[in-house]
Write a structure and sequence with these properties.
Layout: H1 2-28, H2 44-55
Transmembrane segments: 6-23
Protein name: FeoB-associated Cys-rich membrane protein
Keywords: Membrane, Transmembrane, Transmembrane helix
Length: 56
């Protein structure tokens, strides 16, 4: 019984932490939250305008 409660707390704790991390990254914006943001050669403004042009 105690093991089940402990496992439940671990699972729900991890899920909550991942949700908080996702919300924080989504507030940073597209390129700021990208793991390749320091080595990326593309510009976010160019990428967004290109994708918007392609959508039309």
């Amino acid at each position: 019984m105690i093991v089940n409660i402990f496992l439940g707390l671990i699972i729900f704790g991890y899920a909550g932490w991942m949700m908080v991390r996702h919300i924080k990254k989504s507030k940073q914006g597209k390129c700021a939250a990208c793991p390749l943001n320091k080595s990326c050669s593309g510009s976010c403004s160019e990428t967004e305008s290109t994708s918007m042009t392609e959508m039309k």
